[in-house]
Amino acid sequence: MEQLERLSLVSRIATELHNHWGISDKDLAEFVLHLGEESQSLEEFRAKLKANGSAVTQALAVSLYTSISKFVAKSKKAKAAAASGSTSSGSSGIGAKNGVSPSPVKDSKDEQVSPPGSSTNGSKPLPASAFSVSQHPPTEKELKFPGLCMQNRFDRPELQLARPDDHAPLSAAAQRLLEQEKDDKELMREQQEAFKRAKDGYWGGDHNSSSKGGISATGANALPIGGASGAAGTAAAATGAADENLNFCGKRGAPLERYGIYDGVVSRVMEYGAFVQLDLAEGRREGLLHVADMSRPDGGPCVSADAVRKGQVVKVKVHAIAGTRLSLTMREVDQATGRDLKPRNLQGGTSSSRAALFESLAEEHAQALEKKGLGRITGVKINLDSTEEETAYSRKRKLMSDYDKWEAQQLQRSGLVSSKENPYYDEEAGGILPVQEAEEDVEIEVVDEEPLFLRGQTTRAGMQLSPVKIVANPDGSLARAAATAQTLAKERRDVRQAQEAAILDSIPKDMSRPWEDPNPQPGERTIAQALQGLGQTGYEMPEWKKLYLGKNVSFGIKSTLSIAEQRRSLPIYKLKEQLLKAIMGNQVLIVIGETGSGKTTQMTQYMAEAGLVTPGRLIGCTQPRRVAAMSVAKRVAEEFGCRLGQEVGYSIRFEDCTSPDTIIKYMTDGLLLREALVDPRLQRYSVVMLDEAHERTISTDVLFGLLKECCRQRPDFKLIVTSATLDAEKFSNYFFNSSIFTIPGRTFPVEILYTKEPETDYVEAALITVLQIHLCEPPGDILLFLTGQEEIDTTCQTLHERMQRLESANPPPLIILPVYSALPSEVQTMIFDPAPPGCRKCVVATNIAEASLTIDGIYFVIDPGFAKVKMYNPKSGMDALTVAPISQANARQRAGRAGRTGPGKCYRLYTEAAYRCEMLPTAVPEIQRTNLENTVLLLKAMGVNDLLNFDFMDPPPVQTLINSLETLFELGALDDEGLLTKLGRKMAEFPMEPQLSKMLLTSVDLKCSDEIITIVAMLSVQNVFYRPKDRQALADQKKSGFHQPEGDHITYLELYRAWQRNRFSNAWCYENFIQHRALRRAQDVRKQLISIMDRYKLDIISAGKDYKRICRCICAGFFRHACRVDPQEGYRTLVDHQQVFMHPSSALYNRNPEWLVYHELVLTTKEYLRDCCTIEPLWLCDVAPKLFKPADQQRLSRRKMRERIEPLYNRFEEPNAWRLSRRQGKR
């Protein structure tokens, strides 16, 4: 038994070494075990490891020594049971936390080892840190879910991924790809600028120092890189050293090392750089010296032909090694002395030779994986033997019956039909597609084994976990009204469609008969001309939209005041001195103020003017939406008096508009979270302002915990949390009972009116209330809250029709204005215009008008008490928008909208009892009702493993965390111990969901990264195709021309290629009903992804027409979304056997492939699959062996066991009357 335990420990140590060093060697693991058994303390163990040439980190030493100590203590106890104290002496002071993770090790000074950057001074004690190991006894939840409360480890090698320089020049390959993304206008503009520079340079006098051939008369002027190298280069050029036996100077035959400096000879000079030959120990190697890595004596940019010449001897540094390719640089080497101007070390605290040794071992491990047919990065099984020609023949084709095949063959043999007209002719391959044999019926099953660190904690083990409630009383009147509203909305939609169909059916279809008839009836041709083309439109803009939205379109809120006067008119201006005093006196400050008070735009400027920006640091302000970050930054730059991107800039995903001069930076909260991944202490920022914190997005909630820890570690750091709601005590209690600064607004009393009985149809009740206010109440605008676009459009249409019926009573005009996110911004700003005299304005809005917008002139608010909430179902893995009751805080916020201009009224279309008993006190934050896979991956990349005790303001549900960890384990981002792998760390670097990151990294192994980058960029935008209601048939016809048999992903790829072939033309997009703005956005994302891939030295290779590789990459990322055709209807998901249906807009609609994967699952009238891609079933076992396995052919599969015999329908008998058990007694 002891031998088995020893073998298990050796295997565990080998896994740990593989995770940290990338080396999987059992002999090395046994040697480490031997050193641990001979060591009496942790320091002695680390010293022995260092003496044997291994620079081990503190975290790795603690992990290894803890495991070895436990084994030694257990073996001693078994051998000498009488010696009870041997366990403590053998463990050397190392304990275990909850039996899962070791507690912090104490060094020789008996001081607890703290996380990097933690405060250890003797100042006043800080509150308990979210990153420190909890010392309290384990709770019931911690004992129940040990996989969620592992010890935080911040110095693991997997977390210390080398960050590339964001401002480093791109490689030549990446620049060529970016050149292909330029349209004709950009190329023409660059040519004009280049011509202008050349012209200015010529007339500036540079031509006087050169001869007719363009070569300088003197060797010193010909070679801008002077010194010994220049002289040697001149001599080499003079002797014609252009052949293979080039003369080298300096050290020869040195081994190749990264960041090593060598003497080389320029062999070729190109436009984008030069190739330099190096004489190494393993032979001659040639590397690329990019033009950006060259330098002139004055340090400025240069052209490759001006910087080096063929045959010149230069001193270069090896910047990167990628297989047989070398990337060289001259900028970091003194060409006169060969001194390294920018010395680097691969691992802190170790010598360069030792670091190079570990890097070479990791490279050998990657090469060993490659020899086994596995990917170097992801370890996915690869098979790249198929050629493009083979792939072209293996593409899908339409099925034909035997009779159709025979008929096609006879027509071709007779000569009436050419081979190109054969249905099986392939234009790409230039031949007839071979006859495909019937595919073998492959059965794939889901692996039942749980991850080791989650064993007994998942739903597979029978763990019953209750989801978070978003409704206080599921059986109350509000819940019933929400359920009824969906049924009524469907009925209204059906009635409207029936009316439109009846109008079209009443129109005569044969419009040409009156023109063909030589003797038509009087007036018949006139009627035909009036009705001609009416049935083809299919859509006409409603009258209310023409009346209210077609006129007086404005862009932005108009103001006649100057910028300085507008700033002084804001409520925050009067409190400037008090606000700055509060910021100076508090490290954390909570600022409460209504929308429009000036918090977002003015506070950052006040702090910059007060000198809170230290040299080299910024003032950061987060926004929950990227559009808000861009628009606010533009406004602040205008007020600050600078260009956008200079002193004031913004950063959003895939777009950075900042410069070294930036001191005020607006960004999305997700981007600041990614910056915290690199720098947890946020050293670049002196002040961070979390704006709109009341929206409680996922990134904001995670930033709460990270910034709270940052305040503990940095006394000079200041945090400001702003909110538009009155729930400030919760924020203050969370942030160390911090001070609250309130910006008083113009508030007036609001009268609250409730209904006496619950309303079954709140839309109808809202319409009646609007008309009642309009006809009976004094002047004042109305604000009506509804849930979505369809509901708002229906209400506006109905309200307009009812106002038309009241024209006989001569009521005052009512201007109806909708507000929802899909409306153009210029139309949305119409709500800010005051109503004309004698008119009343009725704004029908979603919950965006609660706190994000302030509309002057509102005196009456109608609150039905509902809003659409995005809810994530961990069981089905699907996000769904459901109509749910709002919270009491939202109801108070809505009522407050009526008291901004004067005393107002709020009509609540629910009872007071429902308000008190059926509404939650505050809204459920997004972190408790959304998928958390990306959030958990980021926390793991920061070293936070104790998710259960992380300092969330509102902890997420345990079931969602467990499912997220399970998904990351299946993707290969976590190992068997729940720790982050090297693949997971690389996945965390990409600003996208983990599935897309895995797909992108797999494409590097499968050599199709160019196409996958395009697909990821296209998936990041929405609504690429548009379908105008007046030309739906033509739009569908144009869209079908891009459809590919492999699915929607390849359709997006071919669409982008077609746009690229047409030189990115907007006219081409208009002709094909494509949103050119969406394609432009996808192009920007593609450019950013190319830059990211290039900086991380990931190859960008095209697979051409080999779509199998591309589909395999998609399967590697979205294997959990695999589906198979259901014999009854639709598809069945492989993981949870849920019945789903293909969306009608998919390229695979009505094709019904046997196997597919989807990108997302949406719930409308059914569970629809969006963006589908065909796959082969055996790919699932190759890319996800932890989740799928081939079914045993000797036994009946689970899918076939679930199938049941469904008899034909018989209206004369019961459904089960055919069974023998029901036929007893019948003859």
TrEMBL record:
GO molecular function: ATP binding; hydrolase activity; RNA binding; RNA helicase activity
Enzyme Commission identifier(s): 3.6.4.13
Species the sequence originates in: Eimeria necatrix
CDD domains xrefs: GH2-like_DHX8, S1_DHX8_helicase, SF2_C_RHA
SMART domains according to UniProt: DEXDc, HA2, HELICc, S1
InterPro entries: DEAD-box_helicase_OB_fold, DEAD/DEAH_box_helicase_dom, DHX8_GH2-like, DNA/RNA_helicase_DEAH_CS, HA2_WH, Helicase-assoc_dom, Helicase_ATP-bd, Helicase_C-like
Presence of the UniProt keyword Nucleus in the record: yes
SUPFAM superfamilies according to UniProt: Nucleic acid-binding proteins, P-loop containing nucleoside triphosphate hydrolases
Protein name stated in the entry: RNA helicase
Occurrences of domain Helicase C-terminal (ranges): 769-943
Residue ranges of the region described as Disordered: 81-143
Boundaries of every Helicase ATP-binding domain copy: 580-744
Keyword annotations from UniProtKB, A to Z: ATP-binding, Coiled coil, Helicase, Hydrolase, mRNA processing, mRNA splicing, Nucleotide-binding, Nucleus
S1 motif domain span: 259-331
Enzyme type, top EC level: hydrolase
Biological processes per GO annotation: spliceosomal complex disassembly
Any coiled-coil regions, as ranges: 171-198
